[in-house]
Amino acid sequence: MSQVLVGYDGSQSGERALHWAVSECRLRKVDLTICHAWHWPYAFDPVHEWSIDVARRMAGHVLDQGVLAAENLGPQVKIRKVLSSGAGATVLLQEASGSDLIVVGSHGQRGSEGLPAGSTALEIAGRAPCPTVIVRGTGQKSGRIVVGVDGSADSDAALALAFEEAVLHRLEVEVVHAAAGEEPADELQRAAGSRLQTQAAPWCAKYSSMNVHTRLSAEPPRQALLGAAHGAALLVVGRRGQGGIPDLRLGSVSQAMVEYAPCPVMVARA
Questions:
Q1: Helix or strand (DSSP H, E) at 239
Q2: 3-class SS at 41?
Q3: What mean pLDDT do residues 37-45 have?
Q4: E strand or H helix at 1
Q5: CB-based contact 7:14 (threshold 8 Å)
Q6: Which pTM was predicted?
């Protein structure tokens, strides 16, 4: 089933994720599934069965609000709703089969925009079977798309997604490679620049009418990408980079982007 799957919890962050997801469905011409996970909110077990029914009905009301908002944003989008009991990440991952994209807010009801991304966003970014968007910042699609590359298979997937999004939204692409710590500087900086051009060249040729810029940064990857992401519509990264530890689902640089980027982050997997 071709769809965009969005997690919705009624929070401000969830509202931004919903807007983002509806926009993607309109452009991709696919269906939207809105998922709300609920659980008994108290430390003690319910005394009466009707208490659980009340909690379930309240959760259904939150989901219905999300569906109504999505219908107003995209009347032509076919919407499916899912209400399920359990942890947010677990429920979304169970519903992810066949999805083109999973969209979540950076924080849930109890989170704060001034803090790093919540555990649900991190878990989904690291475990999802498809690309994940964590909607950070304003979520406005304007300006340019920044993509981080390092020659890895995951960064090739990130390039593919970045150009796909740029075509859909008619935006420019900025390809960033960080070469900090590569010594001696002159020789290895030239080698890094050559790798950057080699990785970006096929996409520049395929999308020859698109404005594409490459940036070789002497800063560490985290600083380079966070700096480039200011004012961007979207930052695209691979799940793990060239130096990533195989057992980690999400590399340290990618995790830092999910937690601190000033714009929405899309995480690709090879």
A1: none
A2: coil
A3: 66
A4: none
A5: yes
A6: 0.87
